[in-house]
Specification:
Number of strands: 10
Strand order of the largest sheet: 5-10-9
Number of helices: 6
Radius of gyration: 22 Å
Structural class: alpha+beta
Order of helices and strands: EEHHHHEEEEEEHHEE
Shape: elongated
Helix content: 10-25%
Largest sheet: 3 strands, mixed
Strand content: 25-35%
Distance between the termini: 44 Å
């Protein structure tokens, strides 16, 4: 058997004439870029991601909204039906890069020197990222984790459906990883997000951006 096909570590106990096999931890990971490309290949999905746009929300070169501007546009007593009605949706700025500020702090720097509202890009996709653990084995303590993402641009009625949810990775148990281990686990995901944040051509020859 080749080493590539071995999914366990073998420990031999010569004094007991026995051996112990410990399964290696495997981290299944779905490439975020490919997952979004597959979603965009669905008929009508591009239009679904644009459904929230109303008058004044057309794609173009618009600056991020200030809080006062949002109230001027919608009115301070206007009802909020979804995340798109909140100030933060229009306040997201494109072209930012997170850099270390001081020994412990982080800050977002406008490295591209542009003033662009992120959701005013032709396909500025906003993700909600979740991570949670659950018991997979009854009668035993074995915690398995899942990291998944949903696209907020989707209509609210379908946003959290199974087919609209991207299962990014499954985190093996039996125990929850430490903070340092989680940083290593999400590293491939961060690379994909950074690539998409700079703009990535989809299989439909359209460009998607991610925040």
């Amino acid at each position: 058997m080749s080493r590539q096909a071995v999914h366990y570590k073998e420990t031999r106990y010569w004094h007991k004439s026995s051996e112990k096999r410990t399964p290696c931890k495997i981290l299944p990971y779905a490439l975020l870029i490919h997952a979004i490309q597959r979603i965009l290949l669905r008929q009508g999905k591009w239009e679904d991601f644009q459904h929230w746009r109303g008058p004044g929300d057309e794609p173009g070169q618009f600056p991020p909204l200030g809080e006062a501007e949002q109230f001027d546009l919608r009115g301070i007593h206007a009802p909020m039906h979804d995340v798109y009605d909140g100030w933060a949706w229009g306040a997201i700025q494109a072209g930012l890069e997170r850099r270390r500020g001081g020994r412990w702090g982080m800050e977002d720097v406008n490295v591209q020197q542009v003033t662009q509202r992120f959701v005013s890009l032709p396909c500025g996709l906003v993700l909600a990222i979740n991570i949670d653990w659950f018991q997979t084995i009854k009668g035993s303590i074995h915690s398995t984790g899942a990291m998944y993402a949903t696209i907020i641009n989707n209509p609210r009625a379908v946003r959290f459906l199974e087919e609209e949810t991207i299962l990014v990775c499954v985190i093996p148990g039996p125990h929850e990883p430490s903070l340092e281990q989680i940083n290593h686990i999400i590293e491939p995901f961060i690379r994909d997000v950074n690539t998409l944040y700079g703009g990535k051509s989809s299989l439909q020859q359209r460009t998607a951006y991610l925040r």
